Every structure is written in C-alpha cells, then in structure tokens.
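Many introductory courses stop at the sequence. We go one step further.
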Amino acid sequence: MFTITKLATIWSTEIDDVSGATTGLFKVLADAGADITFALGRPQGDKPGQAILFVSPIKGKEQEAAARKADFVPRPDVVGVQVQGPNRTGGNFKLTAALAHADLSVRALITTVIGDQFTAVFALNSDADADEAIKVLHKVVNAK
C-alpha cells in the first residue's frame, strides 16, 4: 500500500559548505522540540563555498522562532510531496512520467529504498502544483 502526503512547509537557510555546518542548526531546532523528518543539504552552484539546507516540519511558535533565529525562512516556492510504499521496478519512471505528462515541473527529486520500501520526495513550485501532483501520483500508484 502506498501513502502520498504533502509535507509541512519546507524551510531553508544558506550555510557555509564546510564540515559540521548543519550540526548547530539541527541542535537549535531539536532544542525547540522540532522532529525533523525531511532534510536536504546541497551546494549552491552559483555561490562557491555556500550550501543550502532544507528542513521540514517546523511546527508552532517556539519552533518557528528557533528556526528564524537560525536564519531559516519558510519556502512557499518549494512544496514537498512524499510517496511511500513497496519498491517496484520502474517506479521512478512511472511517477516522473506521470508528472511530466501532467506538465508539472519537479524542482527536485529524492528517492531511497530501504529493504523493500520505497520513498520519494518531489519538490514542486506551489501548493496548487503539489495538490495536482498528489492527484496524478494517486492514479499511478493505484493502477494495476
């Protein structure tokens, strides 16, 4: 059985691209009670020596204040949709082809398989795109 969910608001911050740059940020968030279930860090190609860290969820006033203190900002232009379920050969192809056919632009894609369980997180441009992606992806995972 597959589950498809829209992630809570994704937050991001720019950081130096050095060892340990994320450690203090995760501590600030953890100290505020944040249970980060999604994190992605990557270099910024147009800014040598800089990286960007995306996290979710940040919930409630205390966590939001901690996130802002650590220079995180909410990103309404990066909306995550997570697909989880049994791994299937060709799964990435089927999911991405369906989104392309629906003319939905995927800003980023992360997929992992642990054991026989597949997880994909698609980053889309808006809430409306994410809502449409969820409809499209449900059709794919429910097809026989």
